[in-house]
Amino acid sequence: MVNILVTGATKGIGKAIAQELKSIGNVYATGRNIDALREYDSYCVCDLANDINILESFVADKKIDILINNAGEYVYGGIDKMTDAQIEHIFAVNVIAPVKLIAKASANMKEKKWGRIVNIGSISGVMGEANASLYSATKAGMVGLTRALALELAQYNITVNTVNPGWVDTDMGMNSAELSEFFKDEIIETIPQRRFVKPVEVAKLVKYLISEDAKGITGQSINLCAGLSVGI
Questions:
Q1: 120 half-sphere exposure, CB direction, 13 A CA radius
Q2: Which SS3 state, helix, strand or coil, does residue 33 take?
Q3: Residues taking part in catalysis
Q4: Distance between CA atoms of 66 and 68, rounded to whole angstroms?
Q5: Residue 18 near residue 29, CB atoms below 8 Å
Q6: Dist CA 216 CA 154 (whole Å)
Q7: CA 90 to CA 98: how far, in whole Å?
Q8: Is 14 within 8 Å of 77 (Cβ atoms)?
Q9: In terms of Cα–Cα distance, which of 17, 44, 45 is closest to 28?
Q10: Distance between CA atoms of residues 60 and 174, nearest Å
Q11: What span, in angstroms and rounded, lies between the C-alpha atoms of 42 and 185?
C-alpha cells in the first residue's frame, strides 16, 4: 500500500482528506493536537512553524509516496498592522514548511518513479483578499511552486497540483468570516451557488487527483469554490 502524509489532519479539510484516503493507503497524520491525532494509527505531533525538522525526518523514515500539504494559517488585518512575528509565522507554515516537506518526500518518489503531491491553496491566492494580503501571498506562492515542480518532476511520474477552496464550512472558514467586515449571510450572497463548500468535497477531489485516472493532470490550480472565482 502507498504511504500518505496529510498535514493539519486534526480537523476541517485535513481531517476529511485523511478519512477519505484511509481506504487506499497508510495514512500518516500531523498536527499540534495530540489528543485529536490519537484516532490515527500513526501520527507526528509537530508545529510546522517551529518543528519542521521533526516532520522532515518523519517523511524520510515513512517513505511517503503521497504528500498532502493541507496545514495552513490565516491572519486578517491591514498590511501596515502586521507584525514581524505574524509575517514570519504565516510564511513559515504556509510556504516554507510545504517546500521542505516536498523536498524531502520527492527524493523517495523519484527513486520509486511514482508520487503524488497535492497542495491545498485557497481562492484568496487566485483572486486576492483585502486585509488578508499575507494569506493571499502565501497561497499564490503555492500555485507558482506547483507549476514549476510539475515540470521538474514529470519525468519521474510524479504529479503536483493545487486545490483552491473558496469559503469552506470549517472552523477556519467560520473564523475568517467572523474576522471580515461582513456577516455570514452577506458572504453567501457573493457566492454564485449560495453556499459554503463542504470539506468532503475537497477530500474527494484530492482522492481523484492522486488516482491513476488523474495521472495526466499535473501543474494545475483547481478552484473548488462554488463559483466564487467566476463572479456573482
A1: 29
A2: coil
A3: 135
A4: 7
A5: yes
A6: 10
A7: 12
A8: no
A9: 44
A10: 35
A11: 40
Which letter does DSSP use for residue 157 in this model? T
Quote the cell numbers at residue 92.
Answer: 513559515
Per-residue pLDDT of the chain (232 residues; tens, 9 = 90+): 899 999 999 999 999 999 999 999 999 999 999 999 999 999 999 999 999 999 999 999 999 999 999 999 999 999 999 999 999 999 999 999 999 999 999 999 999 999 999 999 999 999 989 999 999 999 999 999 999 999 999 999 999 999 999 999 876 656 655 555 556 777 888 888 999 999 999 999 999 999 999 999 999 999 999 998 886 5
Give Cα 163 distance to the centre of its chain.
7
Q: How far apart are CA 70 and CA 164, in angstroms?
A: 11
| Helix or strand (DSSP H, E) at 116 | strand 115-120
In the DSSP assignment, the letter for residue 156 is: G
- Nine-digit cell at 201? 468535497
Cell numbers that stand for 94 in this block: 504556509
Could you tell me how many residues make up the chain? 232
Q: Which three cell numbers stand for residue 212?
A: 491513476
Count Cα neighbours of 189 within 13 Å in the Cβ-side half-sphere: 5
